[in-house]
Design brief:
- The chain is of the alpha/beta class.
- Helices cover 39% and strands 19% of the residues.
- The protein has a six-stranded parallel β-sheet, sandwiched between helices. It has a two-stranded antiparallel sheet with strand order 7-8.
- The longest helix is centred in the C-terminal third of the chain and has 15 residues.
- The radius of gyration is 16 Å and the shape is globular.
- Bound molecules: flavin mononucleotide.
């Protein structure tokens, strides 16, 4: 698999572990990762995983401040192979859906949509209200892939890491960035270890 460049954005929804694992899985697959962690993303990351945003910053190629609207991902010329907002708060979803690009995460998402490149929003809230659902429709109509943080069970997960990996595996698949599980469902059940 050729080395690609992805922008990972961690926002303040619960499920920071999905963002952490996405960063690490993309690095394990040999890709270049650029990172933005919002203020509330940093708080939930540390609260839920014990990992600080500055510790995670040391694992990636480049880090940007969410307020730096002059950073490369704020321009359509950045041309990443994909942008993933994981987890994606309802606040960031609403801004993406409305085109309200007042921080780097939303501006990068906005540019990704206008340049017709892959944008994945790993939304997390429960339950959804009508505003959340309408924002998901708007984002999907604009070209985003809405991937709810809903782990699968058909691969018989035994640990929380297995559940997290089932979501991150879908992210990698949609980004054409490799695979963690190599699991496919077919006749007679699931198979592991096959492309
Ligand atoms: C512990 C914690 C958990 C949260 N979980 C969620 C969540 O699951 N979904 C959500 O949309 N917002 C959640 N929030 C609220 C967001 O952090 C808040 O809306 C924030 O403004 C999001 O900003 P950001 O998208 O710029 O990071 C949570 C906040 C905290 C402190």
């Amino acid at each position: 698999m050729s080395r690609k460049r992805f922008l990972v954005c961690i926002t303040g929804a619960s499920g920071a572990v999905y963002g952490l694992r996405t960063v690490r899985a993309l690095r394990e697959q040999g890709h270049s990762v650029h990172l933005v962690v919002t203020r509330w993303g940093a708080k939930t990351l540390e609260y839920e995983t014990g990992v600080t945003a500055s510790e995670l910053a040391r694992e990636v190629e480049r880090v940007y401040d969410e307020d730096d609207l002059s950073a490369p991902p704020a321009s359509g010329s950045f041309r990443p192979d994909g942008v993933v907002v994981v987890p994606c708060s309802m606040k960031t979803l609403s801004a993406v859906a409305a085109g309200l690009a007042d921080n780097l995460v939303v501006r990068a998402a906005d540019c990704t949509l206008k340049e017709r490149r892959p944008l994945i929003l790993v939304v997390r809230e429960m339950p959804y209200n009508l505003v959340h659902l309408r924002n998901m429709v708007s984002a999907a109509e604009a070209g985003a892939m809405v991937l709810p943080a809903s782990p699968a069970f058909w691969h018989r997960p035994r640990t929380i890491d297995d559940l997290v990996d089932s979501v991150v595996d879908r992210i990698l698949a949609l980004l054409n960035a490799g695979s963690l599980l190599n699991a496919t469902w077919g006749e007679g059940g699931y198979t592991l270890g096959q492309e």
